[in-house]
Amino acid sequence: MYPLPKLPKHLKLRLTRHVIIHMHRNISKYLDKDKSSKAIRSKFMNYFINDYNHNFVRSSPVVPLHDSSVPFVNAGMNQFKGIFLGTQTALHKKVANSQKCVRVGGKHNDLSVIGLDGYHHTFFEMLGNWSFGECVKKEGIELVWNLLIQKYNIPKDMLYVTYFGGDASLGLDPDIECKDIWRSLGVPPERIIAFGAKDNFWEMGTTGPCGTCTEVHVDRLGYNNRSSFINKGLQDLTELWNIVFIEYNRKEDGTIEPLPQSHIDTGMGFERLTAILQGKMSNYDTDLFSDIFKGIEKICKGVPKYRGQFGENDWDHLDTNYRILADHARMITVSLADGVIPDQNQKLRRIMRKAFLVSETCFKTEGLLRELSNYVVESLGHVYPELEKNITQVHDIISYEEDIHKLLRKNSLNEWQHLINEDPRLANLDIVESPGLTNAYKEIKSLPDNVIPPKVAFKLYDTYGIDEEMLIKLSEALGMKLVRQDFKQELTMAKLKSRGKVIFNQNIIINQLMKENIPQTNDQYKYQYTKEEDAYKFPPLQVKLLKVVRDNVLLSNLACNVECDIILDKSNLYTQSGGQISDSGVIRFGEASFEIKDTQKVNGFVLHRGILKSNDSIMLPLDSVGSLEVDKRFRIGCMKNHTAAHLVNCSLKHIKSVTCQKSSKVTSKYFTFDVGIFGKKLSAEDIKKVEAEVEKLITMGVDVATYEVDSQELHALDDVVYIPGETYPSTGIRLVEIKSTDGFLSREPCCGTHVVNTSDLEDFCFIGMQSLGRTTTSLHAVTGYRAKLAKNNGLQLLQDLHKCEKQLKKYINKPDVVNTSIGLVKEKLKYDIDSDSILPLTIKNQCLGILSDINLQIKEMQNNLIESEIKLALKKITDGMNENKFIVHYLECSKNMDTIPLHKATKICRNIPILVISNVNNVIRARCCVPKKLRNEKFDAEKWLSNTVGTIIESGLSNAKDQDKAQVSNLKSKKVHHENCEDLLRMSVEAATNYARKHLK
Question: What are the binding positions for Zn(2+) in this chain (predicted)?
C-alpha cells in the first residue's frame, strides 16, 4: 500500500469514456433547428467541442466539495480553482461545459431580488469555455464574438463591450490590449467602454483566483447608443457574457499576487441568452420557466394564469409569487439532487420554507413544491442526469421538510403573535421564514445599551438559525446596534475553529515552532502497511525528537514519568480525522520507551502525547533518535471498523431511499455511524438486511482499493458518496473503492486507514441503535472477534431466556423464582458498547420480544393468583364460613411479585366492602372500596383506610381526582423495615377488621 497509487488505468479509461459519452449526449441527442433552450445549449456545445476542439467536462455539484470560501458554486470556474492556483495540472487544455450555479450568499447574492425583476435567479446555468495555461486574449475574445454574431445571429448594433480601465489600489493599469482587440473586430469605439475594478475585475470569492475581465452587454430595446446606461441595473440592458483573464490570486489580507500560469475563463448566463434569442424581455418568459408556470396552473385548480407583470402592474403580487416559486423550485430540486441536506445548509432550508409559504398562502396548495420538482427534472434532466437519478431523494426530503414547516408554523405563530402584541416592532418580521426568531428575541430584548455584541449575534446565528439578513432586520426593528464587521469576524473565527485550524495569534506554541523554523511532521508513513501471508505488517519508523512541549512551554529535553507532547520529524501514527480516532504506539529510545496514548495534528505538526518510561531516570536531549512502532492490534481494529462503516453506508443507501451520513466515530473496539434518513425510520428488518449484505461481502472477500485522485478526476466519477457539508482537498484525495462482482459499489473520499480485503473483517453485527432526532439515527457496530463475542453472548442469553420460559411453566404459582432469572437477563441487556458484554442488536430485540411475552404471562399468572385469593375469601363469606359481611385481606402472593395491581383485587367484589393490603419488597400498599349503599357517617372507604392501616403504618392517602374518595381510597406506598413488616401487616388486618365490625351497619 505504499506509495499510494494514482488513479488506476481502468478508472482513467472510465473517465475518458465518461467524457465522450456525456459530450455526445449533451450536444447531439437534443439537437434541433429551432430556438428552444435545448437547441441553444446544444449550439454552444457544438461550437466549442466540435468546431474548436474543446473537451466537455460535466457540471460539478452546486455545493463546492473542495472550497469552503464560498457557500455554493456561483460560477463555472469554481471546479477549476486548483488549476488556476497551480496545485493541479489540467486534464485538458481547453474545456467547455454548462455549470449549475447558485447565488444566495456571499459576494454574489441574488436572493433578495428574486421575482422582482426578469433576470435574477437563485439557480442558473453558466455556459462556459476555458483555456488553461495560456491567456491569449485575442483568441478568447474572437471565439466569443464569432459565436454571438455568426452562430446566434445577434445583431452587432445590440451589443456593447466593456474592459478593465485600471485600478490604482491594485496597482493595475488599463487593459489597452483588450480594447484594441475589440476595435480590430469592428466594434465601434463608442460601444467599447472602460470600467474600474467594481465591474471589470472578477473574483470568485473574498479570496482565490481572480483577474481583469471584459464583458459583452446586450441592449434589448434597439440600436440607439445607450453606452452611458451600461452597468446601471437596467433590465433591458444587461451583461450577457463575461471573459475573465485569470492572472492573479486574492490573498487573505486583500492584496493580489500573480498566479503561476494565466488562464481564460468565460461565462455566459444561459437564461439571459435564451431570453434574447427567443425575443423575450424577461428570462421568466422563456421555455425554461413556462412549463413550470403551466405546472402551477395545472396543479392549483382555479389559480389565475401567469401574466408576466412586474411592479405596480403586478398589483396582487401573483406574478411575483409565480416567479419566486418557479425559481426556488429549480434551485431546490437541483440542490437536493446534488446531495445538499437542509439540516446542514440553512440557506437551502430557508429557501424551501419560503417556497412552502408561497405555496400555502398564495397558491393554497400543499405538496406543490414536490410536484413542481418533476417539471424541473423534465426540463433539466437530459442535461444533468443526476436529477433523474435522484428524484426519489428530492421528493422524500421535500415532503419531510414540508411536514416540519407545517408543524413549526402551527406551533410558532401563536407565540409570535403574543410577542407582537407585547412589542409591535416585531410585526414586519417573518416568523415562518425564521422560526428561531422567538428565542432570538427573548435572548436579546433585555441586553444593556441596546447593543448586540458579536458573540451574542453569533449565538443567534449558530443556535437559533438567524442569518445575517434577518439579524439586521431584527436589530433595526428593535433599534439595536449590530456591528456587522464584528459579527462577520466572530463567524470567521468559529469557522476556522470548526475546521481544526489554530488562530496563530492565539497559539504561542505554534507561533514559536514556526519562528524557529521547525519542520512540519511528515506523517505520510501512516498509510505504509502491507498484508503478507494473511498478516498485516507495520514497519517501525526511525524518528528524531525535535521538540518537547509541556504546559505550553517548549523544553530542551524529555524527562521520565512526566506526561508531555513531543514533536518528531516524521510519524507513522494516525491522527484523529475522518471520524477515526488517533493511534497509540511506542517510541523505543534504547532501553527507554515513550508510550504514546494519543496524537493530535495542529497546523501540520503532529503532537504525540505520552510518558517516557525507563529503569533509570534519564533525560533525553533533542535530536535523539528512536524507533516508532504502531500499536498493531489497535490499528487493525480501527481499519476493520472503518471499512465496515463504508459498507454500512453503502448498504443503507440500497435499502432506504434517502440517507446521508451525518458523522461517524471509528475506534478499535466499535464504530458509531450517524445517518440521516428522510422517510420511514430504520426498522429491525432493515437492520437485518444491512447485516446480511455486509456479511455477504465479508464472505465474498472483495478487495478494498485505495487510489489518489485530484478534484477533476473525482468529479468525473459516478456514484461517489460524499458527506454533506464536508470540504475535501483539491489534490491528494484518497478514494476508497469496494466493488464486488454482483454490483455492490462503495466509492468514498476518505483519509482513514482500511483493510485490503473485506474478508479481513471476519464478522460483523450491529450492537446498538439510538434515535438522535426526527431524521438522525445513531448505529453502533463491531467487527472481527468482538462481533463473534457479541454473537456468542447473544446465543447464551437466548438460552437463559428459554430457561426462564421453562421455569414459568414449572413454577406457575411462584413467579418470584422466574422474576429473579428475568432480572439477571434484563441486566445483561444493559451494556456499554465498548464492554465485553455486548450483544447483537437483532438478538437484543429478539430477547426484548421474548421478555415482553414472559411479562405478559407473569402478569396473567399474578392476576390469577390475586383472583384466586380474593375469590377464596369471598367464598368463605357466601358459604357461611366467615360471619363478616366484608373482606379484609392481606395478599400473600404479593411478597413474590415486583409490582401488584390492587385494583385487580378490589374489582372482584363490587357489592361488599373490601380492603386489601400488599407487601412487595417491604413496601406496604393498601386499597379499599365501599359500595355507596353501605356507607354511613362513620364508615366509608376513606375513613376505613385512614383510621386503620394508614394510622398503623403512618402513611397518608393518594386518591385520584376522578374518584369518590368515600367509595374508593388508596394508601400511599410506605417502605418499612423488614423486621417490623409482619407485625405491621398483622396489626393492620386486625384493626381494619375490628373497625368494619364496629361501624358497618
Answer: 642, 646, 750, 754
CA distances from 573 to 171, 601, 942 (A): 47, 11, 74
- The CA distances from residue 402 to 387, 399, 885, 982, in Å, are 20, 5, 65, 63
For position 910, what pLDDT does the model report?
82
| H-helix segments, 724-839 | 784-810, 815-828
> What's the CA gap between 447 and 427, in Å, rounded?
20
Residue 642 labelled as part of a binding site: yes
- Whether 808 contacts 818, CB under 8 Å: yes
Query: Hey, what's the cell of 600?
Result: 493530535
Instruction: Quote the cell numbers at residue 400.
Output: 419531510
**Would the annotation count 754 as a binding residue?**
yes
β 914-920/887-890 pair status:
parallel
Residue 140 and residue 266 in contact, taking contact as beta carbons nearer than 8 Å:
yes
Cα–Cα distance, 571 to 630 (Å, whole number): 10
- Dihedral over Cα of 298, 301, 306, 311: its sign: negative
Q: Does the annotation list 660 as a binding residue?
A: no
**Is 410 contained in some domain?**
yes
Low-confidence ranges of the chain (pLDDT < 70): 1-34, 105-110, 204, 432-433, 494-507, 808-820
Number of domains comprising the chain: 4
State whether 912 and 983 are in the same domain.
Answer: yes
Look at strands 704-709 and 733-739 and give their pairing: antiparallel
267 within domain boundaries: yes
Considering the domain architecture, whether residues 262 and 328 belong to the same structural domain is answered as no
Containing 350, the helix (H) or strand (E) segment is helix 346-361
Domain end marker among 498, 525, 541? 498
Helix, strand, coil % in the chain, rounded to nearest 5: 45, 25, 35
Domain shared by 565 and 477, yes or no: no
Triad 174, 180, 186: Cα angle to 5°: 140
Residues 611 and 534 grouped into a single domain: yes
Residue 599's identity, in one-letter code, is T
Nine-digit cell at 540?
A: 517501525
Residues 211 and 64 in one domain: yes
Res 91: pLDDT: 86
Whether 622 maps to a domain, the answer reads yes
Question: In this structure, what CATH number is given to the domain that contains residue 265?
Answer: 3.30.930.10
Give 55-87 as a 3 state SS string: EECCCCCCCCCCCCCCCCCCCCCHHHHHHHHCC
Evaluate whether residue 85 is within a structural domain: yes
d(CA 51, CA 46): 7
**Strand pairing class (192-195; 159-164):** parallel
Contacting residues for 916 by C-beta, under 8 A, at least 6 apart: 870, 887, 889, 890, 891, 902, 905, 906, 926, 927, 928
Predicted TM-score (pTM) of the model is 0.80
977 is in an annotated binding site: no
Q: Give dist(CA 580, CA 779) in Å, integer.
A: 15
Relative orientation angle of helices 468-478 and 437-444, to the nearest 10 degrees? 50
Based on the fold, state whether residues 437 and 584 are members of the same structural domain. no
Residues 37 and 109 in one domain: yes
Same domain, 437 and 537: no
- Three-state SS for 201? strand
**Predicted pLDDT of residue 416:** 79
Which parts of 95-229 fold into alpha helices (H)? 137-146, 176-184, 197-200
What's the CATH code of the domain at 523? Answer: 2.40.30.130
Range of the domain at 555: 506-630
927 and 938 in contact (C-beta within 8 Å)? no
In the chain, the amino acid numbered 382 is H
Helices (H), 879-973: 902-906, 941-945, 951-953
**Pairwise CA distance, residues 327 & 282, whole Å:** 13
C-alpha–C-alpha distance, residues 787 and 840, integer Å: 8
Domain end marker among 630, 652, 667 = 630
